[in-house]
Amino acid sequence: MNRRPFLHKLGLLGTSLMTMPFISYGKMEFPKATRLKFITASDGHWGQPNTDFETSHRNLIEAIHREKDVDFVVFNGDLIHDEPKFLPQVMNVYEQLQMPWYATRGNHDRVSEAVFQEVMHQPTNFSFIAKDSGILLLDCSNEKGEYLCADLEFTKTILDEYAKLPQVFVFVHISQNDWTRHGVDCKPFLDLVTSYPNVKATFHGHDHDVDGQMIYKKKPFLWSGHFGGSWGNPFPSYRVCEVGEDGKAITYLKTVKEGMILNGHNL
User: Fold this and answer.
1) How does pLDDT run across 27-73, given as a tens digit for each residue?
2) Rounded to an integer, what distance in angstroms lies between the CA atom of residue 38 and that of residue 243?
3) Any idea what the CATH number is for the domain that residue 188 is in?
4) Closest to 139 in 3D by CA, of 118, 115, 128, 155
5) Assigned domain for 17 exists
6) Residue 164 lies inside a defined structural domain of this protein
7) pTM of the shown model
């Protein structure tokens, strides 16, 4: 199977679902009572030349504020575009949010671990618990912008610590598999996260033209397209995830502008 064209097709699926926004490879089962709701958005590229990055960020924040009962937001990498001076600027933009927010470091976030922690008030590898759900944010790059595998030792330590939680969600900017054009071959990472029964899903950014789902060992790996930058899908987007009181979870992709659901998956 040639996975790259398949995933690209899946990533563009939303454009064919404009008239059927709640259907994507089966009917989504929305929770009757939502216990946890979070949003992830990636690739804002604050500061990229010849892009209206200020408007794209303002539009995203307005879209997030239109959502109800959001517990937190994760900006999943490429917060800025190469220049370290942009990081304090985008942090001030994120601070406009009316809920907690967190971030991963992407390949265009070319600052050191120390600078990232100083400005963003969290390390590049970070975890926390939200309403009985474990949240794991992983680094996959460095100050040079290289594509790297996530830290397996840190990942295992946290997943062991969270092993008794009902569910865990993992965030890492770059796909840890080469099933996308810009992924990296980190099969040990895939084998590690999929070995924990309570890992519900892993979320990626980085591939601006991908916003669908791939499955590895029955575990979902999802993309969110992009909301900034100079290339990718024609519709800036973000991803919502909801966990019900019964433990069932869903995720769905929405356009920033209209708030239309383009595709969704039961987790």
Assistant:
1) 788 898 999 999 999 999 999 999 999 999 999 999 999 999 999 99
2) 9
3) 3.60.21.10
4) 155
5) no
6) yes
7) 0.91
Q: How many structural domains are present in the chain? A: 1
Domain that holds residue 74: 37-266
Q: CA–CA separation, 133 vs 82, rounded Å? A: 33
Q: How confident is the model at residue 26 (pLDDT cuts 50, 70, 90)?
A: low
176-225: per-residue pLDDT in tens?
999 999 999 999 999 999 999 999 999 999 999 999 999 999 999 999 99
Question: Of 49, 33, 47, 173, nearest to 103 (Cα)?
Answer: 173
Q: Considering the domain boundaries, does residue 159 fall inside one?
A: yes
Per the CB < 8 A criterion, the answer to whether 162 and 198 are in contact is yes
Comparing C-alpha atoms, which of 214, 267, 205, 203 is closest to residue 236? 205
Of 223, 185, 190, nearest to 78 by C-alpha is 223
Asked if the structure places residue 178 within a domain, the reply is yes
